[in-house]
Amino acid sequence: MKKANLIAIGILGVMFLILITSSLNDAAIFDEVAHIGAGYTYLRYKDSRLNPEHPPLIKDLSALPLMLLNLNFNITKPFWTAKDVHSRQWIAGDLLLYGEGNNPNEILFWS
């Protein structure tokens, strides 16, 4: 293997370690609550009603690791069928992270 390849692999390894260790103590910022909840429902329920105004790819990618977790999320609550798109995405995100007994730190880390 060439020296340049080894250097590139080393740099990528260091970047990965920094990524993982820096995300251990992160908290949700402004819109992550809505986007994590929306991405989770896109993948788990195949339904994009929570946040239809944004492209779903990044939300889907961030929610992909959440499919491996056993998360509680109840879609029979009134927010799921609310007409106000803006409100229901925030309510769903709050419920997923803080209102259903899930570990918010685990959800934020994996997403």
What can you tell me about this protein's structure?
- By secondary structure, the protein is mainly α.
- It is 57% helix and 0% strand.
- It is built from five helices and no strands.
- The protein has helices at residues 3-22, 32-45, 57-63, 85-99, 104-110.
- The termini are far apart.
Question: How are the SSEs ordered, and which strands pair?
Answer:
Blueprint: H1 3-22, H2 32-45, H3 57-63, H4 85-99, H5 104-110
Mind summarizing the main beta sheet?
none
Weakly predicted, low-confidence segments: none
Q: What is the end-to-end distance?
A: 34 Å
Number of helices: 5
Summarize this structure briefly.
With 111 residues, the chain is mostly helical.
Note the main attributes of this structure.
111 residues
